[in-house]
Amino acid sequence: MPRYLRLTKSELTQMRASCRLAARTLEMVAEHIRPGITTDEIDRLIDAFIRDHGAYPSPLNYRGFPRSSCTSINEVVCHGIPESRALKDGDIVNVDVTCTLPAEKGFFGDNSVTFYVGEPSPSAIHVTEVARQALEIGIAAVRPGARIGDVGHAIQTFVESKGCSVVREFTGHGIGRQFHTEPAVPHYGKQGTGPLIKRGMTFTIEPMVNLGSWETVVLDDDWTAVTKDGSLSAQFEHTVLATRSGVEVLTRRDQILKSCEDVPHAQLGPLSTPAAFPRHR
């Protein structure tokens, strides 16, 4: 039976620092989301912020990826490459940030959110809020003694009850001193299956939710994954730690995100939103 990464107390101190920086980076990005900004500009802001804090933007040159973050607009499911394309009113855009702290041989912090650009359509609101709630439900399923399949089952059951679908081809993953490790964390599955969750394990939960079919296609750049049917897709991600009694969200933010969590239709939950936020919408 495989032995999955479980961090020591000193390693967790470093891991928490990297995850805090990843969360702060999204807080910074939120201040700049607006119609007219390009994803290339967003990427440059992320690169500078992470480097200014003694870390390295983990996606850059990872397996040949050319930029410092992933920016996925509308029908793009994940791994969108920042470019000169400007965001338009009504778009939704997932910004995926990972940093390595310290920059050399450090620990990885990984998180993402989907932002609203201007005034979203009812369809954009629906898929985004289902994805947001799916992450919350997945986090709630984490505890020592549970199994990875319990997380995926909880997410899939909720998402499909809302008339959406869960992407199969891309999953969450173990994370620590390496960007991607075992176990894989599918966002679908059966209860009581998959690796046993043990105290000290750190991994990401990052459901990708499509308004239509769950099927995806990877474009000719070998990175950008889009919905096969052209439907909208949204994603939210946190890095989590299995604790003695449950779960700690390592990338939990200190501030409400503009253009994401400050909108009236945001369905916020107590596990993944800032601790200072006083209510569960």
Structure description:
The chain is α+β, with helices and mostly antiparallel strands and 281 residues long. Helices cover 25% and strands 22% of the residues. The longest helix is centred in the first third of the chain and has 22 residues, at 9-30. The protein is globular and about 45 Å long. The model has no long low-confidence stretch (mean pLDDT 95).
Short description:
The protein is an alpha+beta fold.
Number of strands: 15
CATH class: Alpha Beta
Please work out how many helical segments DSSP would assign: 4
Proportion in helices? 10-25%
* N to C succession of SSEs: HHEEEEEHHEEEEEEEEEE
Might you state the CATH topology name?
A: Creatine Amidinohydrolase
Radius of gyration: 17 Å
General shape: globular
Name the poorly predicted regions: none
Q: Distance N terminus to C terminus?
A: 42 Å
Mean model confidence by pLDDT: 95
The biggest beta sheet, please?
A: 4 strands, antiparallel
Question: What amount of the residues lies in strands?
Answer: 15-25%
Q: Structural class, please? A: alpha+beta
Shape-level CATH architecture: Alpha-Beta Complex
Give the helix/strand layout:
Blueprint: H1 9-30, H2 39-52, E1 56-57, E2 70-73, E3 76-78, E4 92-101, E5 107-116, H3 122-140, H4 148-161, E6 165-166, E7 172-174, E8 181-185, E9 202-205, E10 208-210, E11 216-218, E12 225-227, E13 233-235, E14 238-242, E15 247-249
Antiparallel strand pairs: 1-4, 2-4, 3-12, 4-5, 6-10, 7-8, 9-14, 10-13, 11-12, 14-15
Helix pairs in contact: 1-2, 3-4
